[in-house]
C-alpha cells in the first residue's frame, strides 16, 4: 500500500495530490465530487483529451487559458468554431496547440448538441455509465473499466474523437461517477457523502 500524502493540515490525502501545490485544492474540492452540469462535463472531457500524452499538471495550470480560448466551454459557441478560430487557437501559447485535439473539441461540441437533442442532457447520458461500486478494484489501481470502455465505444460510434477508454475513465473518476479516493484519504468520506446526496440526472 502506498503511503498517503500528509497535507499541511496534518490529514492524509491521496498520494498523487502531493505532487504539486496546485493539486491539493483540485483534489480537495473538485476531484471525485459528482457533477451534473453539461458544460462542466464537456469541459472536463475536453481537458482529459488534451492531457493525453501530457501531465495533468500541465493542463491544470493552463485551465483558465483553455476556458478563455474555448468560450468557457460553452458547447453551443464552440460548435460554431470554424477555420479562423482553429488558426487563432493554434497561435495561442496559453493552451496546448495540437491541431487534432483542437479540432476534436469543436467536433465533439457539435456531436454533443446532437446527443442532447436525442438524450435530453449530457449528464443524463453519462450517468448511465456509473459503475457499481463492487465492480471496481481497489482505488487508483486501474486505468479503465468496463463502463469506460463501453462509454468510449458509444461516443466514438456517435462520431466523437479523442475519447479512448483511459481518457474516459479519468473523466469518470474526476466527475464523481467513481469514488477513487484512497481509503486513507480524508476526502473519501466527503465524496461518499456527496455521492449519496447527489440526485442522478
UniProtKB/TrEMBL annotation:
Segments traversing the membrane: none
Matching InterPro entries: Adenine_glyco, DNA-3mA_glycosylase, DNA_glycosylase
UniProt cross-references to Gene3D superfamilies, sorted A to Z: Hypothetical protein, domain 2
Record's protein name: 3-methyladenine DNA glycosylase
Record organism: Pokkaliibacter plantistimulans
Lineage: Bacteria, Pseudomonadati, Pseudomonadota, Gammaproteobacteria, Oceanospirillales
Amino acid at each position: 500500500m502506498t503511503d498517503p500524502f500528509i497535507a499541511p493540515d496534518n490529514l492524509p490525502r491521496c498520494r498523487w495530490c502531493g505532487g504539486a501545490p496546485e493539486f491539493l485544492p483540485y483534489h480537495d474540492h473538485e476531484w471525485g465530487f459528482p457533477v451534473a452540469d453539461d458544460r462542466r462535463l464537456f469541459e472536463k472531457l475536453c481537458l482529459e483529451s488534451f492531457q493525453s500524452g501530457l501531465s495533468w499538471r500541465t493542463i491544470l495550470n493552463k485551465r483558465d487559458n483553455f476556458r478563455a480560448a474555448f468560450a468557457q466551454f460553452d458547447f453551443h459557441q464552440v460548435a460554431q468554431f470554424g477555420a479562423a478560430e482553429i488558426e487563432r487557437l493554434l497561435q495561442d501559447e496559453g493552451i496546448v496547440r495540437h491541431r487534432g485535439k483542437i479540432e476534436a473539441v469543436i467536433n465533439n461540441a457539435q456531436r454533443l448538441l446532437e446527443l442532447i437533442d436525442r438524450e435530453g442532457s449530457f449528464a443524463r447520458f453519462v450517468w448511465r455509465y456509473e459503475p457499481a461500486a463492487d465492480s471496481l478494484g481497489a482505488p487508483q489501481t486501474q486505468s479503465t473499466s468496463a463502463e469506460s470502455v463501453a462509454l468510449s465505444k458509444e461516443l466514438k460510434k456517435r462520431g466523437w474523437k479523442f475519447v479512448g477508454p483511459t481518457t474516459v475513465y479519468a473523466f469518470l473518476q474526476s466527475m464523481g461517477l467513481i469514488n477513487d479516493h484512497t481509503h486513507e484519504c480524508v476526502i473519501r468520506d466527503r465524496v461518499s457523502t456527496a455521492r449519496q446526496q447527489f440526485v442522478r440526472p
